[in-house]
């Protein structure tokens, strides 16, 4: 039986996040996710976070409940949750993409001038994360 899931959520940052704020999150996440066997991709722009978490179901569920309690964001909404044959973001315990020209170009293809993930269907959010994972920022 398959027990690997991909959970994608979006949320609103409770304040503007600097690169140093993102570094704090990512440094912790990368270490912890490695020990949990979880991989994924985080993106931040226009005060929105979007994150994909992939791994064993119980580990992903537990981590997500922990993350959703974090005071650095609010209005956490799961946009998709599905069983998968194998993870997509295997190269990264947590990849990262923020505001870059490529991000802007991808948004334009989705008819967005600024990042509004609440207005994107789940499949487009996943596709966006996949594209962004190939153009990560080194944070
Ligand atoms: P503690 O260090 O005890 O902190 C408790 C609370 O203090 C946190 O929940 C947070 O509200 C606040 N806090 C902690 N550090 C800071 C800081 N530097 N600045 C401001 N407030 C702070 N963790 C992972 O392990 N894997 C992930 O993939 C992951 N993704 C995340 C994505 C987002 C968008 C956010 C906001 C956080 C993410 N985290 C992730 C971090 C996670 O939410 C917890 O902060 C982390 O797991 C530490 O948990 P703790 O209970 O030991 O926190």
UniProtKB/TrEMBL annotation:
<dbReference type="InterPro" id="IPR007024">
    <property type="entry name" value="BLUF_domain"/>
</dbReference>
<protein>
    <submittedName>
        <fullName>BLUF domain-containing protein</fullName>
    </submittedName>
</protein>
<dbReference type="GO" id="GO:0009882">
    <property type="term" value="F:blue light photoreceptor activity"/>
</dbReference>
<feature type="domain" description="BLUF">
    <location>
        <begin position="4"/>
        <end position="95"/>
    </location>
</feature>
<dbReference type="Pfam" id="PF04940">
    <property type="entry name" value="BLUF"/>
</dbReference>
<dbReference type="InterPro" id="IPR036046">
    <property type="entry name" value="Acylphosphatase-like_dom_sf"/>
</dbReference>
<dbReference type="GO" id="GO:0071949">
    <property type="term" value="F:FAD binding"/>
</dbReference>
């Amino acid at each position: 039986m398959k027990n690997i899931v991909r959970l994608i959520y979006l949320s609103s940052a409770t304040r503007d996040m600097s690169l140093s704020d993102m570094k704090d999150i990512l440094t912790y996440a990368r270490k912890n996710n490695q020990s949990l066997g979880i991989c994924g991709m985080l993106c931040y722009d226009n005060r929105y976070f979007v994150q994909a978490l992939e791994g064993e179901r119980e580990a992903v569920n537990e981590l997500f409940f922990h993350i959703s309690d974090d005071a650095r964001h609010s209005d956490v909404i799961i946009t998709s949750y599905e069983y998968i044959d194998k993870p997509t973001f295997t190269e990264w315990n947590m990849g990262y993409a923020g505001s870059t020209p490529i991000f802007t170009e991808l948004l334009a293809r989705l008819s967005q001038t600024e990042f509004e993930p609440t207005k994107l269907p789940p499949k487009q959010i996943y596709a966006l994360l996949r594209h962004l994972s190939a153009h990560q920022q080194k944070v």
